[in-house]
Design a protein that fits this description.
Methane Monooxygenase Hydroxylase, Chain G, domain 1; single chain; 118 residues; mainly alpha
Length: 118
């Protein structure tokens, strides 16, 4: 017995029942300015992803300090997170309100652990 084919492949075998399949767009620029925009977009996308990754990594470090119930380490990590969030918000990678909301939520966690240790 032959292996079962995926539903999309089976449906695509007959032309009248073929589903609409979206394919990823590969930009093919025709002008010099369009080629430059593709290069710039790729570079900016990589930078934005790097900035967001920095935020996520630092928030994880803050969460580890919170779960360890260490207020001093948590405060040190909180300061680092705030600095990175401010920097990322200033570059328009993240909206300033989003950064503010994240800082507020992290500060709430920090206050909870500081109050619990006293």
């Amino acid at each position: 017995m032959p292996p079962a084919s995926p539903p999309v492949a089976a449906a695509a075998e007959s032309w009248h029942t073929a589903p609409f399949v979206r394919t990823p767009r590969n930009p093919v620029p025709n002008t010099e300015s369009a080629k430059k925009r593709v290069r710039q977009n790729a570079k900016q996308n990589a930078l934005n992803n790097w900035r967001k990754r920095r935020v996520k990594d630092q928030v994880k470090a803050f969460d580890q300090a919170i779960h360890a119930r260490d207020p001093k380490a948590a405060e040190a990590e909180y300061r680092k997170v705030v600095a990175i969030l401010d920097k990322v918000a200033s570059t328009s990678t993240m909206h300033r309100n989003t950064a503010s909301r994240k800082k507020s939520r992290l500060a709430k966690q920090l206050k909870a652990i500081q109050g619990a240790k006293k």
